[in-house]
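User: quick one - fold this with siroheme bound?
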Amino acid sequence: MDMSDMPQTKKLKLVMVGNGMAGVRTVEELLKLNPDLYDITVFGNEPHPNYNRIMLSPVLAGEQTIEQIITHPREWYAENGITLHTGKKVVKIDRQKRFVETEDGTRADYDRLLVATGSTPFILPIPGADLPGVIGFRDISDVEAMIEASGQYKNAVVIGGGLLGLEAANGFKIRGMDVSVVHIAPWLLERQLDEPAARLLQSNLETKGLKFLLQKQTAELVKGESGRVCAVRFKDGETVPADIVVMAVGIRPNTTLAESAGLHCDRGIRVNDTLQTVTDPRIYAIGECVNHRGIAYGLVAPLFEQAKVCANHLAQYGIARYEGSMTSTKLKVTGIDLFSAGNFTGGDDFEEIVFQDAGRGSYKKLTLKDNKLAGAVLYGDTLDGAWYFELMRDGTDVADIRDKLLFGRSHLGDSGHGDEKTRVMSLPDNAEICGCNGVCKGTIVQAIVAKKLFTLDEVRSHTKASSSCGSCTGLVETLLSATVGGDYSTAPSKKPMCGCTDHTHDEVRAAITANSLKSMPETMRFLDWKTPDGCTKCRPALNYYLLCAWPTEYEDDAQSRYINERAHGNIQKDGTFSVVPRMWGGLTNPKELRAIADVAEKFKVPEMKVTGGQRIDLFGIKKEDLPAMWADLSAAGFVSGHAYGKALRTVKTCVGSQWCRFGTQDSTGLGVKLEQMTWGSWMPHKYKLAVSGCPRNCAEATIKDFGVVCVDSGYELHVGGNGGIKVRVTDLLCKVETEEQVMEYCAAFTQLYREEAHYLERTAPWVERVGLAHIKSRVVEDEANRKMLAERFLISQKPAQIDPWKARAEGVASWEFKPLAEIA
Amino acid sequence: MTKDEPWLTVGRLEDIPKQGSRVIAAPGGNIAVFRTVDNEVFALRDKCPHKGGPLSQGIVHGKKVACPLHDWKIQLDTGIAVAPDEGCAASFPVRVVDGVVELSLTPNTGCPNH
Ligand code: SRM
Ligand SMILES: Cc1cc2nc3c(=O)[nH]c(=O)nc-3n(C[C@H](O)[C@H](O)[C@H](O)COP(=O)(O)OP(=O)(O)OC[C@H]3O[C@@H](n4cnc5c(N)ncnc54)[C@H](O)[C@@H]3O)c2cc1C
Ligand code: SF4
Ligand code: FES
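Assistant: Sure. C-alpha cells for the protein plus siroheme:
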C-alpha cells in the first residue's frame, strides 16, 4: 500500500489572540518543547509583527528605531509554519463550536486557545479626553503620533509621574519640546520609590529641563481653535498649554474579548497556576491581561515566567506550575539609575537601613525582616540591584553581613573586580569583557542588538562571553540590562538546574533524599526530565547529588563525569594529560623526589613544574601511559592528588613551630592530618585548605575554602575564601582550642558544604548565598548537629579513600585508556 | 561509500560504554565510535572542528557530544556543530551486526574536514 494514501494523524489547532510579548514568548517556548503538536494561528490587532514594546521609550528618545525593535519579523512566523494575521481584531470567541472571529469576519477553529491581549492605557474620564492630540503610550502608533507632534508643536504634557510617564516626558524633552509632568501624588513614582529617593530623581530630571506639577488634579482638557487639544485645566483653576497630552496614569487588563466570551474576569482574566482560565480549560491566558492569584503583572520578567509554564502545559508535559513572581523595576532614562524591588515601605516588624549622600545624588534604602532582605530602593548607584534581588529571592540570612550590606557585594571580600562593574558601561568597545574567550564589549553589545538577545544564556551561546569560567557574568549582565533596558536580565524567581528540567538544584536534592531516588534514570523519571538522558550540566550534578546522598550505595556513573574526573588527570590542549601526585601538606623527602624523577625519565615527561599547590606536576602524558605511570608512583607510596577533580585539592601549609621563629603551633603537622582526613570524596566544586602557623599567614589560609590560622591560644577557623578569578577573603567561623576540634569543625563544615551547595558552586558563593549566620548555626552553635555532620563526612570518606590511581593501575576501567581497535 | 568498500570489524558493541565512546586508531587519524543511551552507534573523526579537541573524551548526551576542551556540542549523526557554533567533524559509516561493530574508513559526504 502506498504510504501517502494513509490518513495522516491530524495536528491540533492552537489559536493565539494578541500578538505581543507574552504571547509570542509562549509560542517560542512551545516550539522548543514540541514543535509538531499544533497548527498555530496568530491574530494581532496591530499592523506589525511582534516587537519589543519595552523599547518604545528608547525609540521615542531617538536612541533606537522601529526596525531595530522588531523581535520577530514575518519570516520568523513563516519559518515556523505559523499563520499570522496582523491588523485584525478578534471580536468573538465561540466556546461551543470552538472558533474565533475577527471584525472583518475571518474565522479560525481551535482545539486550544491562548488569550494574550495585554492591557490598554487607562484614559481619565474627564471632558476633552477624546480630543485629537490626546493619547496613551502603549504601541508603535502612539510613538509615531508623539514623534510627529514633536516636529510640529511646542508644548507637551504628560499626565502621570510613573515609570511610563517619565520615560515619555524624557523622550519629548530630548525631541526639543517643553514638557510638564502632572502628578496627583506628593512625589514621583510613589509606588516604586520612597520620598527621599523621589526628590533626588525629581531634581535630576529638572536639571534636564523637565517641569513637574505635583499634587495636581486634572479637571479638563481644553479644545483649541483647530479642534485639537490646546491646554490642560486643573481643579484649582490653573491651566498649562498643551499641544499633545499623554495619559500615563495606569493600565487596565484588556479583558473585553474574554468577558464577551463569558470567561471569568476580575481585574484581569482569572487563571490558575497552569495559566488555564478558571472558566474553560481549553482556553489559556497569559500576560498583562490576566489576574493570577490576585496580581496582574505589568513587567515582562514575570510574564516570561508565565510563558514558560503555559508552554509546558500546551506542549502536554503538564508538570510546571506558576506560583507568582517577585519583581523589580528600573527607569529607562539615560543617565539616571534607579532600582527598586520588594517591600521597601516596610512596616512594624521591618527594620530599615538607609544611606543618603545628597551631594553625590545617591540614596539607598534596604528593609529587613527576620534577618532577611525584604526590599530595596537604590538611586544613583544601582549596580548592586541584581545582588539585592538575589538575596531576596534566595532568602539569604544577612545577619552577618548587615553592616556591609549597604556598601554592596564588592565589599564582601572581593578585592579585584568590584570596581570594574562601575566602569563597564563607559568602557571602550574593544575592552575585553570575557578573558577566557576573548570577547570584547563591542561584540557583546552588537550581538545583543543585532540578534535581539534577551537572556544571559542567549548571550552566552551567541558570543561565548561568560560561558567558560563565568567570572564576567556580572559584567555581561550589566551590558545586557543597559543595552536592552528594562528587566530582561533580572533573575527569575526560580532558577531551574538546566534546560532539561524546571526544578531547582535544591528541589532536586530534596527529592533525591525524600523519595530515596538512587539512580540517575530513576531520578530523571521521577522528576519528569524533559530530555532522555540529560545534558552536560545536569548529569554531572545529578551524579554528585546521588553520590553525596547515598555514599555507600550509589554506583558512580563515569559517563556523567567530565573527562578529567573520568581519566583522573587534567586534559591538556593537545589531548595529553597531567599527573599530580599528592604530597601531604607539601612535605616531601629525597626518596619521594627520586621516585618522581625516575618516573619522569622512564615516561619521557616533557615538562615538570612545582605547582601553586605545593607539589609537583608532570605534564604531557599520553592517556595510554597513565596506568603504568600510576603503578610506579603507587609503588613509591604516592596517591592521586586530585588536581583534576571537584574534590579536595591541596592543603597548603607553612613551616610553623617546627622551624619558624614565629610559629605558634605545628601548622605543617596539622595540615598533613587535615589532608589525610579530607582527601578522596567528591565535592560540589574544588576544595582547598591551608594552615598557617601564625597570623603572618604565609600559607594564605584566608583565601581558602577552609583555612586555619594558628595563634598562641589556639586556632582560628576561616571559611568561604578563594583566590582565583574573583578573590574572596574568608569569613571567620570561630576560634577553637585543640587540634581535635579543628578536625571536627573541618569535617562538619565540609559535609555541610557537600550536602547543601549547588553543584559547581564553590564555598565562597555558597557562603554568600546562604549566609554565614546559617553556617554558624549548623556548625558552631549546634554541637549535636556538628558531630552528626562530621560523622556523615567520615562515613562518606571510607569508600572514597581508595586511591583511584592504584585501582586503575591494577586494571579498573582499563578500557578507558586503550583504543578499541588499531587499524594498520 | 562505494558498494565494494569493505566493512571493518572493530569490536563488540558491549565494549563501548553506553553514553560513551571508544577510539579506533586508524591511519588517517583517530576515529571515535560513540554509543548513545538507546544503543545507537555513530563514528566521527576524533577531532573537534574548533581546535581539534578529542571528541571521544566528551560527555555524550542525546545524539550529541560535548567537546572536552571548550564545550562545543557536536551532532553525532552528522558531525555538525550545534549552532551558533559552526563547523563539522567528518562522520563515518558504522553499523552493528549481531553485536559486532563494523566501520568503514570512507567518510560520509557532506563535511569537507576529512
Ligand atoms: C597546576 C596549577 C598551576 C601551577 O602550575 O601552579 C593549576 C592549574 C590549573 N588550574 Fe588552578 N592551578 C593551580 C593552583 C591554583 C591556585 C593556587 C592555590 O591553590 O593555592 C588557584 C587560586 C586559589 C583558589 O583556587 O582559590 C587556582 C585557581 C584556579 C581557578 C579559579 C578558581 C576560582 O574559584 O576562581 C581555576 C578555574 C576553575 O577551577 O574553574 C583553575 C583551574 C586550573 C586548571 C585545572 C584549568 C583546567 O581546567 O584545565 C589548570 C590545570 C592545568 C593542568 O593541565 O594541569 N585554577 N589554581 C596549580 C595546581 C595546584 C595543585 O597542586 O593542585
Ligand atoms: C513604553 C513602555 C515601556 C515599557 N517598559 C518596560 C520595562 O522597562 N520593563 C518591563 O518589564 N516592562 C515594560 N513595559 C511593559 C511591557 O511592555 C509589557 O508588560 C508587555 O509588553 C506585556 O506583554 P503582553 O503580551 O501581555 O501584552 P502586549 O505586549 O501589549 O501584547 C498584546 C497584544 O495584543 C493585541 N490585542 C489586544 N486585543 C486584541 C484582539 N481582540 N485581537 C487581536 N489582537 C489584540 C494588542 O494590540 C497587542 O499587540 C513597558 C511598556 C510600555 C508601553
Ligand atoms: S606564618 Fe610565616 S612566620 Fe608564621 S610560622 Fe609560618 S612561616 Fe613562620
Ligand atoms: S576544541 Fe572542541 S570546543 Fe574547542
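One thing worth noting: Residues 11-117+253-314 of chain A form a domain with the FAD/NAD(P)-binding domain fold (CATH 3.50.50.60).
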